[in-house]
What does this fold into?
Amino acid sequence: MSTAADGTSQKLPSIQLTPLENTLKDLLLDVAQYIRNRGTENTHGDGTETILRFTGGWVRDKLLGVGSHDIDVAINNMTGYQFGTILKEYLDIPENMEKYKGEHGEKALSLHKIEANPEKSKHLETVTTKIFGFDVDLVNLRKEAYDENSRTPQMEFGTAEEDALRRDATINALFYNLNESKVEDLTRRGLDDMRDKIIRTPMEPYQTFKDDPLRVLRLIRFASRLGFRIDEDTENAMQHSDIGSALKLKISRERVGIEVQKMLQGPDPRGALHVIDRLHLYPIIFANYQDDAAPDCSTWSLGYDALNRLLFSADESGAVGRVRALLVRDSLETYYAWTIAAFAPWSAIPPRIQGTKPTVPRMGEAARDGLRADNKMINILKQAAAHWRIVIDVKTALVENQMQGTPAEIRQQVGLHIRSWTADWKFCVLLSLLQEIMQGGDFVQGETLPLVLPTARIVTYTPASAVVLHSYDQFLSYIVEQGLEGVCDLKHIVKGDEVMKAFGGKKGPWVSKALRLVIEWQLLNPDSQDKQELLKFLESKREEIGV
It folds into this structure.
């Protein structure tokens, strides 16, 4: 039995270090001994002896049996920069370098990038470097003081307990004391919360979020990543209007966007969106900074649950598998799909009107202003929002045999529509699928889903949702059968200069009209590469072309 921080007897878990982690530990402790031998202890902290700790996420992940290459090293009595400088000095001694380079070579101990973080005040300088392949942050123990008018904390030297209590969650406040080779739970709740799979703040949650509202998003992200639940008092504080207002108005949208991106790229985006939905945080996180409209989130869960089941279904050969195989092929497209699901409530709201023209679709506007999304993501959302209604119309007309014309003419119509939806047409189709389900056809909600789903799941559907899914399977199967998946990349077999030469005309708007007709002819005649036949067709359209 070990003695816990509160003086009670508590069996503390042990951490098994890998050989490389153990070598790093030995190196850091040798540097601490080197400091003692020099008699240069710096007593800015809580004592004269240098005590080193691995902190934060590394400890949490090790206790969960997950490896990590990111290690934060906390020093009790000097800044990270001071310790890093002495570490470099220690390794500049040949026999020390020889002792530790081993099979890794000197390159693994090259510390030429020991630099102070310029964003930190001089007396709290930190260092980031690479040792034995680990990304190591050297930082002193600290406490935080917040100014009412700023969300940036003023850092001061602190004790180990003060450092633990300032952290966002008890499970992130666990330390591994290198000097004593033991886990430290200085909040007295971290290990219990790890066991019970609970996310809670070390201090009173309202004040914790008041000090830094971004912690609301961080805790949601950790809950979804780890499959933990958020403590009730912590959730209640998250929903407080003061916290919501501070999160929306006082935290940079870049920082909010980074947290949301990590959620949507994590192992359980559905879990994160569900918490946001349940706690009514949608208008705060996916915010409208024009304050002229609010999305209806009453059926949003149908959309993100539908996507979750679509992605995790074990049905590889049926409708679900075929739809998934075409719309969501890799991890990047999976991230885009979750982002579309996240912004889906905004897609039903018409864009604002400025003058006589509509502005950017609401989905794109919310991503741009609310999360500072990159241009690629904004463009995907803009295109999906602009076209999802016409996608439904075209899909419905096709599968219900309402399109007029010969089979070749129907192929041409569908191909031209897809080209108008741009190269991101698959995301337009995905949003239309989610919207149809949100408007009525729900997946069966029979069982309570765990936060982290197994990789395979048998999915059943209500009759309404089965009809929706089947219709998209038919639509996408038609696109594949007709070879239209890559229609946006279809090249003109007759180029613009050839058209100008054939018509004897100069460059002008008429050339674009002619090239549009070239694509129409190619879609109508997919097996033909006959340029002469194509030019004859264009000649018959001379009046329409306007030349």
